[in-house]
């Protein structure tokens, strides 16, 4: 079977490919040949899955849950800083009028 070229593969496809090697004991070269992808791709997927089984292969445009939470907290922090600066300016304006 000819290799498929660069493409995007679903999370399920990647997990199934990894399971064929890890659970079924099929060699990486055989799985790669059967699926039409390069062996190194399967090795990369295996490393990613082994490092974080639940967060591996988040998908295009998606982040791992901890990265998503980090990004949300960064945005919240920025909003709070802006609000603090607004309050500082308002305090300065009102304190001028009192004197």
Topology:
Blueprint: H1 11-22, H2 28-35, H3 39-51, H4 65-98
Kindly report how far apart the N and C termini lie. Answer: 84 Å
**CATH class label of the largest domain:** Mainly Alpha
Structural class assignment: mainly alpha
**Percent range for helical residues?**
55-70%
Overall 3D shape = rod-shaped
**Biggest sheet character:** none
List key phrases describing it.
99 residues, Arc Repressor Mutant, subunit A, 2 domains
Task: Briefly say what this structure is.
With 99 residues, the chain is an all-alpha fold.
Structure description:
α1 packs across α3 and α2 crosses α3. This protein has 2 domains: 61 residues, Arc Repressor Mutant, subunit A (Orthogonal Bundle); 37 residues. The chain starts with 10 loop residues before the first helix and ends with a helix. It has 99 residues and is mostly helical. It is rod-shaped.
